[in-house]
Amino acid sequence: MMQSNTVGARIEAIGLYFPDASLDNKKLAEELGDWAPEKILEKTGIRERRIAAEGQTALDLAEHACRNLLDKPGVSAEEIDFIILCTQAPDYILPTSACILQHALGLRTSIGAFDINLGCSGFVYGLSIASGLIASGSAQQVLLVTSDTYSKFINKKDRSVRTLFGDGASASLIVSSPNLQSTIGPFVFGTDGAGAKHLIVPAGGARNANSEETRIEQVDGSGNVRSQDNLFMDGAAIMAFTLAEVPKAFSAVLLKAGLVIDDIDYVVFHQANAFMLSALRKKMKIPEEKMPCRFENVGNTVSSTIPIVIEELMASGKFQPGQKIALVGFGVGLSWSACIISL
Amino acid sequence: MSEFYEGLAEIMEVDVSELSTDYEFGEAWDSLAVVSTIALIDEVYDKAVDIQLLQDCKTVGDIENLISKTDG
Amino acid sequence: MPQISSGQSVCFDDITIAGLVACVPPRVVENSEFEAQFGSGVADVTKMTGVQTRRWADDDVTASDLCLAAAHKLIDQLGWEADTIDALIFISQTPDYRLPATACVMQAKLGLRKGIIAFDVNLGCSAYPYGLWLASMLLSSGSAERVLLAVGDTSSRVVDSQDRATAMLFGDAGAVTALEKLPGAGRSHFILGSDGGGFQNLIIREGAFRTGEGEGQPTPSKLFMDGGEIFNFTLKAVPTLVKDLFEVSGFGSDHHDAFLFHQANTFMINHLAKKAKLPQEKVPINIGRYGNTSSATIPLLMADDLGQTLVDQETRLAMFGFGVGYSWAAASMPTQKLGCAEVICL
After folding, report:
1. CA distance C264 to A249
2. Catalytic choice (C23, C67, C125, C340)
3. Together in a domain, C242 and C274
């Protein structure tokens, strides 16, 4: 009950889940026609994406990821006292999917649960809320879940996004840290709604409900087909935004933490695609070995990309106590966030 | 200009010797090429050009003009 | 942390509500407008719910539009510089888009600076106390010095016009609350809980990503409410929630100036108040005029029924939000004299 800001938080374990179906470049090349498989790989760095089955939702992926987490040693469902679910593809308009997840996992009813709607910046936002929950004494063990199924938004004839996005989920257990030192944070955030139109599903919300009209498909100047019910991405605008804001956010979080780049062992960016990551790496002059990547076989999984990389670092023993990782999420919103974590 | 030309040649998938200020992109100036060029300009000149104007560029010279008009 | 059965409890010090503005659409919908359709059913439903009139938004108005109007007025009345606001939380089940988050869109429309925290949360009846808790956490953790909490829904657009139980119950509204740190403001207590076991009882089955469940139902893309189940849940959950809030806060019935229940229906609120032995005069009810405005009911009560009181006096308020999810939240919060507490019309 004591209010205290001295309780630190850390990532205890991460569980992942990817749907079974694979969409590889060969299949994409056959469907899209004008790009060879090698060219898709060269441009995106992605070999295959995992795609949710018909009828399989982000909540289903989330539940699998949570079960994979709960199977890990030292993780107990009874101890979990909060759920944050970050998704842009909930099961229902209402109720909130996090409540359904609470019940599906058999967690106690005396816990808080809610969804947040964020994309590529969602995991870092979620970490901030989770560590706030722990610091404020609202919770001791937070289940932070990210899950999305962008494939369901994407028009099959829109190569500009179909080549990039995959479906997937992550479940992270955030616990109070025994040493009072917080190992998550500091954080910096940013929002620029003026760029909301650059990455958007124009119809389906209250502003523009789905209708016959919004289902009408149109061909754009590059030959991509989409309707207002589909995901639209202005790749050029997103690239320009990323190059302008991400380096600033990175510098800001280093400054806030009192660190310099040499103090950072790894920089984990939102895994947008090879092309954007290499542009960032060159611009920010980050050595390749400090920039772990993991998207080649899963694509851009939106809010799950960062925990997917951290999970591999943890599993392979590359992330050791005392090491520091900078996380930077950026994209749809436009929204971005950065933080420093250590084990 | 050579670093920029080399990058642009890579993006347009042509030999650098083919590029000149009059070089016309034609159909190949697609969204991916534009995105790539944004990154290239950022890398070489540390400038953020107007995306709409970049999309409207037809020749290498158009891009060079745009870059020189853009503040760093 | 004492173990209480109704949820997670937490407290924060030195957080204050600087002001709030609620915004309703201009169109007043009278019960008489339903008579042609439901006949004598109108009187039956009205007896239970107590809703006489409700405000419905035009088709091109969204919850964020209502909240933006409220936010503009609030920022203006408080004299807050736009660049002193650090976070914007938007809680709604009728957001503008599937993606991006509506809070991001609002950041630009309000002219807030680019460095702010902005995100959406999807909650309904429990939204306001949840949101106050979330805002308090941002303030308390040092993530923000000033927070705008926007809650709102345009439920009129998702109700089933053929179903008299819901068609006449809901109204549209948005509300924005400004919170900041204030040393000496006193201690706020919160309790939060969830039970997805009841998710089927208040739901829109079709329209998002779980498909096929609405087959055989008359209008699966509209709001379905099992009134009996919701009533049972409420009767079971809320009295315990009231008791637990008194226990964790140490402030009982006498120490609170008002008990603000989510305006679900008049009969239910009266019943809950009686069961918890709360004095009737401290339990304001305005569902008669506005209907059930989902996430906005509690701030609409504050801005409307308590508006003048909150501007003139210091108070301690108890709030109880419960419903869709199931999800519930309670708050016991001290208020200083608010800079602004009013209802505007869009």
Report:
1. 44
2. C125
3. yes
All domains of chain A, ordered by start, with CATH? 8-182 (3.40.47.10), 185-342 (3.40.47.10)
Tell me, yes or no, whether C303 lies in a domain: yes
Secondary structure class of C296 (helix, strand, coil): helix
Q: Rounded to the nearest 5 degrees, what angle is found at the Cα of A96, between the Cα atoms of A95 and A101?
A: 110
Of A43, A234, A237, the CB nearest to B32: A43
* Domains identified in chain C, total number: 2
CA–CA distances in Å: residue B61 to residues A236, B44, C31, C59, C324: 20, 16, 69, 49, 60
Residue C15 Rama label (left phi>0; alpha psi -120 to 50; beta): beta
Tell whether the model's pLDDT for residue B72 goes beyond 80: no
Q: Catalytic pick from A64, A273, A300, A339?
A: A300
Q: What is the ipTM of this complex?
A: 0.90
Residue at a domain's end among C136, C154, C181: C181
* Best to test chain C binding among A4, A92, A211 (most C CBs inside 10 Å): A92
Residue of B nearest to A285 (CA): B43
- Full residue range of the structural domain in which residue C86 is found: 15-181
Q: A238-272 pLDDT, tens per residue?
A: 999 999 999 999 999 999 999 999 999 999 999 99
The per-residue DSSP string of C118-155 comes to: EEEEE-STTHHHHHHHHHHHHHHTTS-SEEEEEEEEEG
Indicate yes or no: CB of B31 within 8 angstroms of CB of A43.
Answer: no
Question: Are residues C168 and C76 both part of a single domain?
Answer: yes
pLDDT in tens, C94-112: 999 999 999 999 999 999 9
Tell me, what amino acid is at C164?
Answer: R
> Are B34 and A243 within 8 A, CB to CB?
no
Interface probe, candidates C15, C67, C104, chain A, greatest A C-beta count within 10 A: C104
Q: Give chain C's length.
A: 346
* Inter-chain CB proximity B38 and A244 less than 8 Å: no
C227 shares a domain with C129? no
Domain that holds residue B44: 2-69
- pLDDT tens, B4-57? 999 999 888 899 999 999 999 988 888 778 888 988 998 889 888 888 899 999
Q: What is the pLDDT of residues C119-178, one digit of tens each?
A: 999 999 999 999 999 999 999 988 899 999 999 999 999 999 999 889 999 999 999 999
- B31, B42, B43 ranked by CB distance to A235: nearest: B31
Which residues on chain A are in Cβ contact (under 8 Å) with B48?
240, 243-244
Catalytic status, residue C292: yes
Total number of domains in chain B: 1
Judging contacts by C-beta atoms under 8 Å, the chain A residues touching residue C105 are 193, 196
Which pLDDT belongs to residue A8? Answer: 84
Residue A42: closest C-alpha in chain B: B11
Quick one: C27 and C165 in the same domain?
Answer: yes
Which residue in C has a C-alpha nearest to residue A105's C-alpha? C196
Judging contact as 3 or more Cβ pairs under 8 Å, the answer for C and A is yes
Q: How far apart are CA C299 and CA C63, in angstroms?
A: 14
Helix axes A235-257, A274-284, angle to 10 degrees: 40
Asked if B35 lies within 8 A of A243 by C-beta distance, the reply is no
| Residues C170 and C287 placed together within one structural domain of the fold | no
